[in-house]
C-alpha cells in the first residue's frame, strides 16, 4: 500500500513538473521581432560618427546657422563627411532616410513578448523587486533577470520584466531577492511608477504572471539540508543492515 501511494505521489509530481515548463529569460523575447533588416548594424564606429556629422549638419542648415559658424563651414563639413562615406560605398542620404524605420524595428525587438508563452504555466528564476499592491489588493512584485536592475541601473526592456501577482504567503523581504516563481504567464503590457532606491522608476513589463508558488534561496537551502540528513540516515541504516542489527521485513526491506 505504501509503495502504491508513493508511486501515485511520484506520478502527481511528474505531472505538475510537466505542466509547468522551466523557461529562461531569452525565451521571453519574441523571436520573430528579432529578424529585421538593419543597414546600420554592420557599420563601424567611425562610419556611424560620420553619419551623425551629416545628420547634424543638415539639421543645422535647415534650422538656421548660428553666429558662431558660417554656412560655408557647415556645408564644407557636411560635404567632407558625405564624400568620405561615399568612398566606402555608403550612401549617407539613403541611410539616414531609413533611420526612423529602423528605430521602430529596434523598439519592437526590445519590447515584444513571445506569443508562444501567452497563457502557459511556466517556472522562471530571477530577482524580485517589491511593489505596491494591485488595485484589488493583490500583492505585487517585479521579476528581473539581473540584480541591481531598476535601482542602480536602468530597468530592463519590457520583454525582460514580469509583473508578478503573488497568490501565496511569500513576499520579497529585500530588493532583488533571488527567487524561482511558477505560475501562469500572460502577455500584458503594463506601466507603473514605483519607488526604488534612486526614486520613482517607471516599471514597464510586457508580461504578467499569476504566481502559484515560489522557491527561495532559503527553500533551496532547507531542501539541501533535508537531503543531507536523509543521506546520513540512509548511511546509518545501511551500516546497521550490514551488521545484522537491523531486522528485515517480509519483503526483505528494513523497517
From TrEMBL:
It holds the Pfam family DUF3299. Residues 1-19 form the signal peptide. InterPro entries: DUF3299. It comes from the Bacteria. Keywords: Signal. Gene3D superfamilies: Protein of unknown function (DUF3299). This is DUF3299 domain-containing protein.
Amino acid at each position: 500500500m505504501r509503495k502504491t501511494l508513493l508511486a501515485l505521489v511520484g506520478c502527481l509530481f511528474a505531472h505538475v513538473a510537466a505542466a509547468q515548463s522551466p523557461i529562461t529569460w531569452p525565451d521571453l523575447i519574441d523571436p520573430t521581432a528579432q529578424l529585421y533588416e538593419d543597414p546600420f548594424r554592420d557599420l563601424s564606429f567611425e562610419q556611424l560618427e560620420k553619419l551623425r556629422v551629416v545628420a547634424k549638419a543638415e539639421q543645422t542648415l535647415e534650422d538656421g546657422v548660428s553666429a558662431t559658424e558660417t554656412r560655408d563651414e557647415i556645408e564644407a563639413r557636411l560635404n567632407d563627411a558625405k564624400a568620405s562615406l561615399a568612398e566606402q560605398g555608403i550612401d549617407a542620404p539613403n541611410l539616414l532616410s531609413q533611420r526612423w524605420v529602423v528605430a521602430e524595428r529596434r523598439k519592437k525587438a526590445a519590447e515584444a513578448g513571445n506569443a508562444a508563452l501567452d497563457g502557459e504555466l511556466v517556472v522562471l528564476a530571477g530577482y524580485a523587486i517589491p511593489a505596491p499592491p494591485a488595485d484589488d489588493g493583490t500583492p505585487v512584485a517585479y521579476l528581473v533577470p539581473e540584480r541591481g536592475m531598476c535601482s542602480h541601473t536602468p530597468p530592463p526592456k519590457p520583454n525582460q520584466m514580469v509583473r508578478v501577482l503573488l497568490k501565496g504567503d511569500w513576499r520579497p523581504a529585500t530588493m532583488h531577492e533571488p527567487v524561482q516563481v511558477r505560475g501562469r504567464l500572460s502577455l500584458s503590457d503594463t506601466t507603473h511608477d514605483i519607488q526604488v532606491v534612486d526614486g520613482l522608476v517607471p516599471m514597464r513589463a510586457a508580461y504578467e504572471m499569476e504566481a502559484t508558488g515560489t522557491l527561495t534561496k532559503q527553500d533551496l537551502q532547507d531542501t539541501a539540508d533535508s537531503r543531507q540528513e536523509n543521506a546520513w540516515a540512509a548511511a546509518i541504516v545501511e551500516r546497521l543492515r550490514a551488521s545484522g542489527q537491523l531486522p528485515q521485513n517480509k519483503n526483505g526491506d528494513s523497517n
